[in-house]
Amino acid sequence: MNGKTKPPNYTVSSGTSNTRLYVSMFLSIVYDHLINPGHWTEDMRDHALQPADLDDRNMLVVDVGGGTGFTTLGIVKHVDANNVTILDQSPHQLAKAKQKEPLKDCEIVEGDAENLPFRTDYADRYVSAGSIEYWPDPQRGIKEAYRVLKLGGKACLIGPVHPTFWLSRFFADVWMLFPKEEEYIEWFEKAGFKDVQLKRIGPKWYRGVRRHGLIMGCSVTGIKPASGDSPLELGPKEEDVEKPVNPFVFLLRFALGASAATWFVLVPIYMWLKDQVVPKGQPI
């Protein structure tokens, strides 16, 4: 990204943020059985976690926005479960994580990705997969990632990429945050991370065409070069938590969000079918 291009301000009203949380609560029922098989498979997860360098079973890891624990299952392959903390805002999703036997020794914490309940210089690794989509202010969340890491610690953030196809772009914009790849890099660098790297990921049907976007499309890593808080200074949160939400506006947002969720469930099915029909070597 050149110096003249500024990422859009993703800070949203509490109404939009709450709508995303309600949609997330609804999706928690089907994440492991419907969403993950199309957008976040075990192969993708393991591929995306490789840059996190989970190479010590005793390192402290925080899985922010860990939800139902699908990504955490990949983390505990390399790190002892009693050294891993799963944090999420949704008690519905955390309840799913608690039921998984490999995660029974993990610490479960209900909390906010933009205001983490961990001390500064706490963790060796910060992992967040499929969570940034719901953050009202991504820059604030990445700043928090920097703060809670130890000197030399590494953050690994896995998230969506922005579609170019008009209908997918419309649904992406009304449902969640689908950042551009260069925006991830700029957010990390502004927070103070060094050696920022972006790795593209995708399901088996993915052939390099990102016009529909991908709910899990890239894995971004950065290293904390100095102890303490992030050098980036931000003002107070801009969410208007006191303003009541218009019920009609809420219902409209929820309906659009549910429609978008349905669309992005159908897209991988459509792309998988094309992958079976279109000759190999040709983009789909």
From TrEMBL:
Does the keyword Amino-acid biosynthesis belong to this entry?
Answer: no
Transmembrane segment boundaries? 250-273
- Region SAM motif II: which residues? 106-119
Name its GO BP terms in alphabetical order: methylation
Recorded hits in SUPFAM superfamilies, A to Z, give:
S-adenosyl-L-methionine-dependent methyltransferases
This protein's UniProt keywords: Membrane, Methyltransferase, S-adenosyl-L-methionine, Transferase, Transmembrane, Transmembrane helix
Q: What Pfam families does this protein's entry cite? A: Methyltransf_11
GO terms for molecular function, please? 2-methyl-6-phytyl-1,4-benzoquinone methyltransferase activity
- Give me the ranges of the annotated region SAM motif III: 147-160
InterPro entries from the UniProt entry: Methyltransf_11, MPBQ/MSBQ_MT, SAM-dependent_MTases_sf, SAM_MPBQ_MSBQ_MT
Q: Where are the residues of the annotated region SAM motif I?
A: 61-70
Gene3D superfamilies from the UniProt entry:
Vaccinia Virus protein VP39
Q: Please state every residue range assigned to the domain named MPBQ/MBSQ family SAM-binding methyltransferase profile.
A: 26-221
What family classification does the UniProt entry report for this protein? Belongs to the class I-like SAM-binding methyltransferase superfamily. MPBQ/MBSQ MT family.
Q: What is this protein called?
A: MPBQ/MBSQ family SAM-binding methyltransferase profile domain-containing protein
Organism in which the protein naturally occurs: Lupinus luteus
Organism ancestry:
Eukaryota, Viridiplantae, Streptophyta, Embryophyta, Tracheophyta
